[in-house]
Amino acid sequence: MCPASNQIAVASGESSEFSKREPDRIQAELTALSNVLGRKWNLVIIERLLANGPLGFSGLLEDIDGISSKVLSESLDDLEASGLVDREIVNERPIRVEYSLTQQGAALEWIIEKVREGSLTVTAHSEK
């Protein structure tokens, strides 16, 4: 099916390869995003980098209450592998590394803003 007839099929409500795959793509992207952002410290790290700009490992460790160096290291590796954080060596001796948000990471600022506004407050409802 050519692209034009695919658009017509979608517009007319007919089933098409495109319309069947689109929900699958969206679900895959949402799942991937929630897997990264759903990890305990990842949104906190993104928020700190948004608020402060590039930070070294020790700067992040001091700035985030309750996170261990092991968990911070794992979280930064995860965020880097996901394309949300860049890791740059800024000094070779002694080695100094700085972390900053990529364009993709910075694009998540709206989520942080909604949390700051209280718009995304999630409360637990217990069954009575």
TrEMBL record:
Residues 1-16 have a biased composition (Polar residues). The keyword Transcription regulation applies. Residues 1-22 are annotated as: Disordered. It holds the Pfam family HxlR. GO terms for molecular function: DNA binding. The keyword DNA-binding applies. Residues 28-127 form the HTH hxlR-type domain. Keywords: DNA-binding, Transcription, Transcription regulation. Transmembrane segments: none annotated. This is Helix-turn-helix transcriptional regulator. It comes from Natrinema salsiterrestre.
